[in-house]
Amino acid sequence: MAYTAKVGPSILSSDLSQLGRECERMMECGADYLHLDVMDGHFVPNITFGHPMVECLRRCIGPDPFFDMHMMVSRPEQWVKPMAAAGANQYTFHLEATTNPGNLIKEIRESGMKVGLAIKPGTTVEELAPWAGQIDMALVMTVEPGFGGQKFMEDMMPKVSWLRSQFPSLDIEVDGGVGPDSIHRCAEAGANMIVSGSAVVSSDDPRSVIALLKNAVIEAIQKRSLDR
Ligand SMILES: O=C(CO)[C@@H](O)[C@H](O)COP(=O)(O)O
Ligand SMILES: [Fe+2]
Q1: Which atom of ligand 1 is closest in space to residue 44's alpha carbon?
Q2: What is the C-alpha to C-alpha distance for residues 82 and 74, in angstroms, rounded to an integer?
Q3: Residues 32, 37, 40, 171: which is the catalytic one?
């Protein structure tokens, strides 16, 4: 069991005019990594930012924070090199957005980044499975991608449980509507990388929310290892 509990705030719901400061604030509050949502207005009906913003953020907050790029874009191949040059650490692309996942995985690795592979709610986990041995992280979306602040889809949890049973040491991330009310279901199903946007960023006490989310995952990991 090689995986550990990590919490990565999504800064989509933060004050975007203060993005550098917001990222610093999340790291100061105990975030393990930062989940940066890139949307192109085509793969999803919303637009956020691209690699120039990532480059500025990297310059602003220094080399240490891990940037998990959630690429909600139609042509993920196009941004691999620019994102690597901008200082991204992990490139998480959508299976639905490419016809050649194998080649894209290779390109991401050659650019020096870790590989994340995401599936939308309508995509089965069996479609992701053939690539699971080649990736660092599987992202199971728990909302339709495009917007923060949506309701958690509990019916995605069987995907997480199945992945955990089939790939015991894979990093499994959940993203969308995850907060204190839904974390226990995610943790019990086997997710270990927790993205949380509005529940963390809009809280008066983000440090406590991050700690609560992380502890729920730590407890579930301990329980799983005792049950084995
Ligand atoms: O990728 C996405 C949405 O498409 C997410 O990263 C959300 O931005 C998470 O925000 P909450 O649902 O936790 O508010
Ligand atoms: Fe995301």
Answers
A1: 4
A2: 16
A3: 37
Please say whether the beta carbons of 193 and 8 come within 8 A.
Answer: yes
Closest of 153, 152, 195, 196 to residue 171, by C-alpha: 195
Strands 34-39 and 6-9 come out as: unpaired
Ligand 1 centroid from CA 100, angstroms: 26
Ligand 1 atom closest to residue 146's alpha carbon, by position in its atom list = 4
**Dihedrals φ, ψ of 45, to 5°?**
-85, 50
pLDDT at position 94: 99
Catalytic residue, candidates 32, 40, 171, 175: 175
Low-confidence ranges of the chain (pLDDT < 50): none
CA 128 to chain centre: 16
* pTM recorded for the entire structure: 0.98
CB 201 within 8 A of CB 13: yes
Tell me if ipTM is over 0.95: yes
- Cβ–ligand 1 distance for 182 under 6 Å, the answer no
